Amino acid sequence: MQNFPLVSVICLSYNHEAYVVEALNSVINQTYSNIELLIADDCSSDHSVGVIQDWLQHHPNVYFSANEKNLGNTKTFNQLAKKAKGEFIIDLAADDVLLPNCIEKQVTTFQNSKYENLGIVYGNLIEIDKNGNSIRNYYTEEDHPESGNIYKMVIGRTTKICSVSSMVKKSVFEKLGYYDENLAYEDLDLWVRASRVYEFEYIPDFLVKKRELSTSLSAFFTQRNNKKTKRLHESSLAILKKAYVLNQTKDEYKALLGRIRFEFYKFLKSKEYLLLFQLLILGLKTKYKSVF
Predict the structure, then answer these.
(1) Is the model's pTM score more than 0.90?
(2) Which neighbouring-strand residues pair with 65?
(3) Quick check: 267 and 276 in contact, CB under 8 A?
(4) Could you report how far apart the first and last alpha carbons of the chain are, in Å?
(5) What residue intervals traverse the membrane (predicted)?
(6) Are 120 and 194 in contact (CB under 8 A)?
C-alpha cells in the first residue's frame, strides 16, 4: 500500500441546498490531502444544483454530474463508484460532515491493522440537528462495536452498524458487485455481504457528524400508508432473506432471529401486514435452522 493512497469521496445530493457546501468543504479541508471528490445530484427539486455549481467555480477540477431524472441513491452512487480511481471509497451524504481528521484516521487504520483481510473501517459519529447542534453520540458506553469477523453483530443487531463513518476498499465493491440497485437503502445489505467475506475494524473516535432531518430515511420506517415506508420494508425483507442464505451455523441463525424480531415491530407499527406475514414465515424458517 502506498503511504498516501488515493481516497475517493462520493458526495450524493438530493434537496440538500442548505447543507451541501458544508459537506463539500469538510472534504477539501481534511488533514489528509490525497483525495478525489466526486459529486452527483439526483435531480433535486430545490436549488442544490445551482449551489453546487457556484461552489465548483472555486474548485473546477472536482467531478460533478446532475441526473436528469431521479435514479435513487444506489444507482447514483454506483455510477460514480465505477468512475472512482481511489483505493478507498467514502459514501458521503450531502447533509453530513466529515470531521477534519476523519480520512487520515481511516487510512492510518488500514495501514496499521492487524487484520489481513480488512475490507472496511468504521468509527463513531455525532448526530446533529438541522442547525448543526449536537443531539447524541451514535455509540455510547453501552454499545460494543466489534472488529474482525463482525458478521453475527451485523445480522443480529446486537450492536448498531455505523456505515456513515466507514471507509471501504474499492476492491470490496468490485468483488460484491457494488450496491444492490433493487433496494431502497444500501448500508445494511453491503455490511451483511461484506462481513461474510471481509474483516472490519472499529476506530474508537468521532469521525463524522450525521444530520438527522424529518426527511431522513430513518424517519420513514414506521409511518403508515406511505409508499416510501413500504419500499423500505420490502428492502429490509430482501436483505434478511440474503442473510438467511449466507448463514452457515446455528448461532448465526439465532443471531438473525434477533434482527427479524427488531424488524417485526417496525413492520407491525406501519401496518404492512402482507410483508409482516412474509417476515413471519422467514422467522419460522430461521428458528428451525437455529435448532436443527
Answers:
(1) yes
(2) 40
(3) yes
(4) 45
(5) none
(6) yes
